Amino acid sequence: MWKRQMNVDCSSLENTNVFPKITDLSLSNLPQLRSFYPGAHTSQWPLLEQLQVLDCHKLNVFAFETPTFQQRHGEGNLDMPLFLLPHVAFPNLEELELGLNRDTEIWPEQFPVDSFPRLRVLCVYDYRDILVVIPSFMLQILHNLEKLEVGECSSVKEVFQLEGFDEENQAKRLGRLREIKLDDLPGLTHLWKENSKPGLDLQGLESLEVLDCEKLINLVPSSVSFQNLATLDVQSCGSLRSLISPSVAKSLVKLKTLKIGESDMMEEVVANEGGEATDEITFYKLQHMELLYLPNLTSFSSGGYIFSFPSLEQMLVKECPKMKMFSPRLERIKVGDDEWPCQHDLNTTIHNSFINAHGNVEAEIVELGASSAL
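Given the sequence above, the corresponding structure tokens read:
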């Protein structure tokens, strides 16, 4: 959608096209499009706030006018990109959506550090050949990113590439990120590599949704802290054997909703890392928990942790046939100001403790061992 229109005499701009009034630009379903303007040129979009490029799979969206680009283009090794940009790119762009562009690359390696200084929302889907969504050279550029959505990218193996930055700089990356949604990434094995130090600062993250990532073997490294995460939803991630480490679980002090479903290999939610029986993990704000269609789930945790759920209102466990106990070494279940000794049978424990003794908690156990509904 074009909010404003203008006329520019391009002949007076020496192969530079300037669009000083355009705030929204959408290019969609243009399979033959190869360039915004014929011939070698650069463009400037000083007020552009929203950019959408969909189903334009014969072109690269971005490139920068560098001596290397000029040489390679002059030799016929590069096609003109949709946007050939000088210096700072899109100084006011806040939302960028790229999709259905098939075999093209997303980012050139020549992005200036001060590009996209206000970008808050990034949506990427249906790119076939990219291995990394946000490479290391983009981390220092997308420092204002708040929302990231990635879907239907069959070759993506990791979302963030962290190699190449020192600890001081890297610790500041993506500090404003609030929401991550990953959907249908069949090649994804991890969000970023476990041995990447010092990792990402995701303490501001409020929502993490991961769907249909069958090869994902590790959700996040144990060094991650989720101090502000309110929603954690993981569905159809068939290679996960556990969801999070005990240290990550202890950081979830603001988690309100936990949903896990259709992850065939998952054996426990909180991994057993040999914790002491006196260790307590409290989900202070957790109100709603779902464990659905987890055929190999044997317990919430097989470790020696005491779990507390002082705000729990709803709990749904469905078709988890191997889950007989909430936690084999669980000493007690604590809800609100009350706590009860943990009995061996999960159905009995939830029924007596969560329902009879704490009326504001709803629990439903369906097809858990012997089928029953509470």
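The helical segments are 67-74, 136-139, 167-170, 246-250, 346-356. Try to locate this feature in the token string yourself.
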